[in-house]
C-alpha cells in the first residue's frame, strides 16, 4: 500500500544502517525524436537497487504523485496534488566542444520537495542526500546531518537548477548555494567529472571527502591530506543514466560492510560499470550478486586490522587492493542466469520486449519500461 502525505513514513523503532533521501522519477529516454525506453528513475531508485542487491537494510524517503506507475520495494509518500517528477533524456542534442556531455536532461514535471518532517524519527549510520529534481532543501539536509552518523551527498542535489521554460537541467557553482556552509558537517561529497568543475575541489577537500567519478577511467578520491585514483572496470555502454548513482550505492554498501574507502570505491566502480551496460534501472544477475557479496566478505576478513567506527573513513589503500579489483572483475564475467530478463536493446524484437500492463497505485493500467510514452509532455508550470 502507498502512504499518503497525511500518513507518511511512521518512525521505526531502531537505528537503521542507511537512510536514502530523494524522489523517485519517471525517466523517458529519447533519441532522434523517438522514445527508446521508459524506466523508473531518480538516484534513490538506482541506489536502493544496489543496496538491496547487497542485502543491506535501509530506509528510503521519496515523494511521488498519484500517477506513479512502477512497483518499488520502498513505499513512497504520495502527494495527491502533485505529479511524479519526470525527466526526458535526449541523447542526440547538446554535445559540447569538450566532448563530455552525452545527453541533455529536461525536467518536465516536478513533485513536491522532501521536508525535514518527512524524515523518520530514528538515527541512521549513513545518510544519503540524493535528490535529482531540486527536492532536497537546505533544512532537510540539516536534519539529515542531525540524525545520521555520516552523511553522503550527491552534488547534483545541491547545484542543479532548471530552465523556467523547458526544464533543461543547468548547474550553478556550489559556493553560490545555501548548502555550501554545510560542507564541514558532511562526510562525503560525490560529483561526476562534469559536475566537479562547479566547485573548487582543492577548497572543498579541506572540509570533507570528495569523490569524483570519471566514467571509463574509474574515480578519484580526495581528502584533506591526500588523493587516490581508483581503477575502473571495463563496460560496453548502452545508457549512462544512473551510473554515478549506482557507484554511490556500491561505495556506501562497501563502507557499511567495513571496507576501507579505496576498496569501497572499487565496489562503486563495479556497480557503475554494470549499470551503463543496461538501459534504465539495471537488473543485477543473482549469481553475480552472490559472488560479489562473497568477495566483499572475504576482503573484509583479510582487512580486519582496518576496522573503523561508523563515522570514520580509512583512506589508506590496504594491502591486496589490486587483487580485490581482480576478484570483482572476475565476478563480473560470470554468465547471467538464463531465467533472468535481458536488458532492453534496440535489437530485441517487439514480441520479446512486450510487457503486460499492470495496475499500480491507481486504477488505470500503466505500462512498464518499453511502453510508448503517451502522456502529453508538460513543463513544470503545467504548460504543454
From TrEMBL:
Signal peptide positions (record): none
Enzyme class of the recorded protein, top EC level: transferase
GO biological process, one term: myo-inositol hexakisphosphate biosynthetic process
An MF annotation (GO) of this entry: inositol 3-kinase activity
Region (Disordered): 338-360
Keyword terms of this UniProt record: ATP-binding, Kinase, Nucleotide-binding, Transferase
E.C. designation(s): 2.7.1.64
Xref: InterPro entries: Carboh/pur_kinase_PfkB_CS, PfkB_Carbo_kinase, PfkB_dom, Ribokinase-like
Residues forming coiled coils: none
Catalytic activity: myo-inositol + ATP = 1D-myo-inositol 3-phosphate + ADP + H(+)
Residue spans of biased composition, Polar residues class: 338-350
Key word Signal present: no
The UniProt record lists the keyword Transmembrane helix: no
Domain (Carbohydrate kinase PfkB) ranges: 169-280
UniProt family annotation: Belongs to the carbohydrate kinase PfkB family.
Protein name as it appears in the record: Inositol 3-kinase
Lineage start: Eukaryota, Viridiplantae, Streptophyta, Embryophyta, Tracheophyta
Amino acid at each position: 500500500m502507498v502512504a499518503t502525505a497525511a500518513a507518511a513514513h511512521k518512525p521505526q523503532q531502531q537505528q537503521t544502517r542507511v537512510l536514502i533521501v530523494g524522489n523517485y522519477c519517471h525517466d523517458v529516454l529519447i533519441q532522434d525524436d523517438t522514445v527508446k525506453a521508459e524506466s523508473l528513475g531518480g538516484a534513490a531508485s538506482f541506489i536502493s537497487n544496489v543496496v538491496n542487491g547487497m542485502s543491506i537494510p535501509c530506509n528510503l524517503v521519496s515523494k511521488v504523485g498519484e500517477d506513479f506507475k512502477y512497483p518499488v520495494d520502498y513505499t513512497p509518500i504520495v502527494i495527491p496534488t502533485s505529479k511524479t517528477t519526470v525527466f526526458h533524456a535526449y541523447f542526440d542534442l547538446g554535445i559540447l566542444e569538450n566532448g563530455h556531455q552525452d545527453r541533455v536532461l529536461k525536467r518536465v514535471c516536478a513533485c513536491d520537495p522532501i521536508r525535514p518532517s518527512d524524515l523518520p524519527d530514528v538515527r541512521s549510520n549513513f545518510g544519503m542526500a540524493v535528490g535529482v529534481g531540486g527536492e532536497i532543501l537546505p533544512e532537510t539536509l540539516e536534519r539529515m546531518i542531525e540524525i545520521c552518523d555520516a552523511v553522503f551527498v550527491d552534488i547534483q542535489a545541491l547545484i542543479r537548477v532548471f530552465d523556467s521554460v523547458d526544464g533543461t537541467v543547468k548547474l550553478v557553482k556550489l559556493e553560490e548555494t545555501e548548502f555550501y556552509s554545510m560542507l564541514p558537517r558532511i562526510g562525503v561529497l560525490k560529483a561526476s567529472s562534469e559536475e566537479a568543475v562547479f566547485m573548487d575541489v582543492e577548497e572543498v577537500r579541506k572540509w570533507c571527502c570528495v569523490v569524483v567519478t570519471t566514467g571509463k577511467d574509474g574515480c578519484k578520491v580526495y581528502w584533506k591530506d591526500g588523493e587516490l585514483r581508483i581503477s575502473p572496470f571495463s563496460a560496453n555502454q548502452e545508457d549512462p543514466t544512473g551510473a554515478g548513482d549506482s557507484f554511490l550505492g556500491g561505495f556506501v554498501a562497501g563502507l557499511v560492510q567495513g571496507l576501507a574507502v579505496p576498496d569501497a570505491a572499487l565496489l562503486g566502480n563495479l556497480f557503475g560499470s554494470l549499470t551503463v551496460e543496461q538501459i534504465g534501472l539495471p537488473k543485477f544477475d543473482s549469481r553475480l550478486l552472490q559472488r560479489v557479496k562473497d568477495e566483499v566478505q572475504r576482503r573484509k576478513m583479510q582487512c580486519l586490522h582496518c576496522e573503523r567506527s561508523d563515522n570514520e573513513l580509512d583512506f589508506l589503500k590496504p594491502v591486496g587492493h589490486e587483487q580485490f579489483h581482480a576478484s570483482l572483475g572476475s565476478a563480473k564475467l560470470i554468465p547471467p542466469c538464463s531465467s533472468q530478463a535481458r536488458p532492453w536493446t534496440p535489437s530485441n524484437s517487439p514480441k520479446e520486449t512486450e510487457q503486460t500492463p499492470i495496475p499500480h497505485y491507481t486504477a488505470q493500467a500503466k505500462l512498464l519500461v518499453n511502453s510508448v510514452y503517451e502522456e502529453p509532455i508538460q513543463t513544470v508550470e503545467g504548460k504543454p
